[in-house]
Amino acid sequence: MAADQGLAPTRSSSYLSTRPKARLALLLSVPLLWLVVMYLGSIVVMLVSAFWTVDSFTGAVVQTFTLDNIVRLFTDPLYGTVALRTILVAVGVTLIDVVIAVPMALFISKVASPRARVALLVAVTTPLWASYLVKAYAWRILLAPNGPLAFVTGGNTPGYGLPATVITLAYLWLPYMIIPVYAGFDRVSDSLVEASFDLGAGAWRTVRSITLPLVFPAIAAGSIFTFSLTLGDYIAVGIVGGKTQLLANLIYGQLVTANNQPFAAALSLIPLAAIILYLFAMRRTGALENV
Amino acid sequence: MTEFRTSRRAKPSESAPDGVDRASRFSMAHAAEKTSDATPQISLRGLRKTFGAVTAVDGVDLDVYDGEFFAMLGPSGSGKTTVLRIIAGFETPTSGSVFLDGADATGLPSYRRDVNTVFQDYALFPHMTVAKNIEYGLVVDKVPKSERVRRLGEALEMVRLGGFGDRRPTQLSGGQRQRVALARALVKRPKVLLLDEPLGALDLKLREQMQLELKAIQRDVGITFVFVTHDQDEALTLCDRLAVFNDGRIEQLGPAQEVYEFPATAFVAGFVGSSNFIGPHVAREVLGIAGSFAVRPEKVAIMPRGKTVVIGAPRVDGVVRDVVYAGAVTRIIVDGPAGLTLSSTVLNTAGELDVSIRRGTQVTLSWPAAALRRISD
Questions:
Q1: In this structure, which CATH number among 3.40.50.300, 1.10.760.10, 3.30.70.360, 3.90.1150.10 belongs to the domain B2-114+190-264?
Q2: B348 near B329, Cβ under 8 Å?
């Protein structure tokens, strides 16, 4: 048996070959340790620290339980406004990416010739090789008041601000939407569409009853990327957003400028809650069952 | 040659009495062919279809009549599936016309044709239950709910899947999916049902069982079935008439028995069943007649040299090259004169074959004169 697996028939490998549970434990212990200690551990520490405070004279973190940070979140209108703005931007970016990605993915998967398909998939994924900062700066140059876009449109550009932020983020996260949706379309065999036509359904009915329900899980998977990546972004906003602030900018400000780590942790509860709620909403639609 | 003509005239369909199952099958198909005023359910005229430089269908004319079980038989790439897809409306012919029930349907989209299809991969909607799959065509047609429920129940009963309505396609076996696909197409009560290699994905036992079921269902619903297959056994078992496709053309068209018994070309003789071919050179040398011929192995009788032979029947001496035991039958391959190789198939009715026939045995082969079929090259 050990020899079958291409291993030298030593004592330890023959021991493992007859004990699948020991094999599994050995295989998973390291990644599991990493996941629990490093990943979940850091989030738990952050959650706990949200209920601490800072000594206003020394700036040192005071590890006593207090609800002050949470109260401040709900009483200062600034945070509610920025949270709402951030979530709307995330929804907007997601919608724009869906609108662009669905026809593109449909074309790549069903219309393009095999050679064109490879070329298009490469074109979609190549920007992922370039640094995120480079792409954000590229948009800053594009959208500059005297930049190329202004030159072409005669000065009618959105300038730096909220629209520029949405455009840039939609551009940055587009591949994360196109690839899963493309894979989703690829799984819908042509004969299903033909079967729908065959049974008397027209094009619109077929899209509504067959294609979209089958591709929806893929769209949902893509939207989880675009939504959560937008909620956490502060660099692109800083580069093209002008004075616009999103939640991540506030968190960064509290952490670095105001040196208030506990309040930064409290602020980051908002996107965390938003993402958890979003995942539950997606699960309710049944979209996560087939991902 | 004269024998050939005589036997051809004595078609079983014209001499067979009515009432017998096979005979009535024949007479029905022929009656439809003979009455010129009967409108064919499907009529193809000068059908051509090219994909780039490839000609998939190259001039097909075909009439399929009401209530026929019609097979399109051919090797892969012979154009049979393309013809089916053109009838269904999934492909537009490059030239030629499609008439459905007498009306020109060449440019009609598939959702406007009174034709339904059973797909090779069944194409069941994976996100719907069995019941929703079957109902889909009725919902699209806005059939009232009460009638929908009734017809769904009938369809499930017909394919013996009562109680499976709430399952998902992934929870069914291959044979059950096949039956759902059949029910989904038939519940719409089309005038024509198209089946694309319907049994291709099933294992042998299940396939034989489904063949019988398909035939029973076709008899019950009484509509035209057109199915595509590369399996000649399946075509002969199921159909009333068949068209043998090769290179985008129909090589031969006729009742199953006629195509098997009277293959028109060497291709048909070789593709539908197996045949011994006797080329013009060997025919002249050995049999003393001109032309190319085919003779079915099961019509070739074999006996040790020197034993009595049916007088007047063609006979050829040879040496046994190989004896292949295949369960129900034994195939004996014999080297004859002038490079002729003949095979003879013997039913293993009495257990083992005559033990005196083995490799190297001197034998004499003979066959009824009518079994020798002239074929065009």
A1: 3.40.50.300
A2: yes
